[in-house]
Amino acid sequence: MERNIKKFCKKPSKILFTKLTPELQEQMITTSFNVLSQKTGNQEKALEILQVLDQVSVVHGYTIYTGDMNLSTPLERLTRMGITTLPVISPDELGDIREIFDATIEHFPEYLRDPSDPRLNAVGDPLVYALGGFAAFGNPGSFHNPLVRDLRIKCWKQAIKLFNQVIKGYYDKDLRDNYKVEVLFDRMMFRKAGQKAVAEAWHRDVMPGDLIDQRDEVYGGWINLDNKDQYFSCLPGSQLGITQRDIPSGFDTMTKREMANMMKKKDVKKKVEKMNKDQREKYLTTLIKPILLEVGKHRNKFKIPPGHMVIFPQYIMHEVVANAVKHDMYRLFLGWRMTIRNKSLRDNEKYMSEQAVVPLPGGMIPPLYAASHQSQQLGIPTLKKLTKAQKKKFDLDKWVKDLDDKYTQLYPTERMKKLSKRLKTTKNKREVIAKMNTEYLNAAEINVPFDEEKFIDDPDMTISFRSVFRTNPKDDSTKTTLIKWSRDTIPTKFLKKQVYDGSGGKGTYMKGPRYMKSLKAMGLKMYPNYSKQEKIIYRPNRVN
Question: Is 18 inside any structural domain?
Fold first, then answer.
């Protein structure tokens, strides 16, 4: 039998594999996966064996798991496919958990609320805690409230059983004896029915190399608090043979990587030499499209049942699919670090004592809104002179109706309502639009120059107002701008005066911070201090 093993290892083939006992066959497969998962031994040979046995395939350089998708244990699923789920909360408890979740966010201290209904903001609209379809929170309360602290402990108790098995399976005695596990802070997510996350193409979430050891493993995931399944779309097996610290920090996208690979080809490099940036990107996108499509055929949509948490190496190749949810979605994101170091990834003691927003494992600080909200959806109307070509296509009635709808919906003051009513009957629509614009600027406390008479006298001058967006794409009543959302949602003392330098001249406006300070720094009511027992899971611990 030893001879058969040597023959197979020297030149793997299915015929030689059948000459091994069933026990040795399973051992050969398990060992090969472990070699790739642990990044040890002869990884090239392990990959060759698994390819011959139809356990994995390599598609354009990406390792894809092609074996049995119904693996029997969480350990096998994690070390082979790169993803597993574990039960944490029973279905009977989930209803109560969601009620506590709702009560928790309704009492976040960082927001303005309707005195009679904490679910509403200062003007009586549904309170939106963070802008954008992804809907993960960016306030310090979402990291430190009693519910998430209790959920992390529940998840920890289940996860350490799995990590204990993972560590015991390491061939390297130093790692087997010294690996520890710590919980990484992450935030809550509440996605309203109708919302959808912005699509993110294939990518790996990776770590800044200076934060982790060469042998660190960082896992991501979340716990599903819904009464319905949630899903994670990834390329199973794409984590095999990948060392986390070797991946460039930030956001490793398949598109960026394949474009770089194309540029290594002499004929491609020569062809794009004289192209500008846009032309080059368009050309390279065309070249790599077949590759992305071919790799994408191997995606797998993994189900996370209610009350279960999902765990995966955060560098597994995955995507975010932009599907609108049909029900309110509840989730707590989770992170885990397996390390030989004794020091935590972050200065957790400071974050806990001040109850601050904690940077995500990849280094990003969770924001309240995206950079695009600040640049494209601010909410300041701009003046724009029509060109000769634009004048021919200009639809006056459509333009008037669009501005009327936006002004009256965003700031329906008594004067705005009267002006809107007058707009329906007057022939001098430019005059009324000018007054409505002034009323809008006053109501939003946007102090930018606007000369009504000059605007009225110049028929080629228009007001461009494209920065309105819906917090819920399917609900017109949720239209807002960054400035309005800030004023309706963030306490006045936390708003910041900003300088605006636009087409009409310089001015000022107020907006909420993109990143929140700690509860302590903001002088807000803090949650109970972390106990010594609670703090234990936020530093590296032995689990074997």
Answer: no
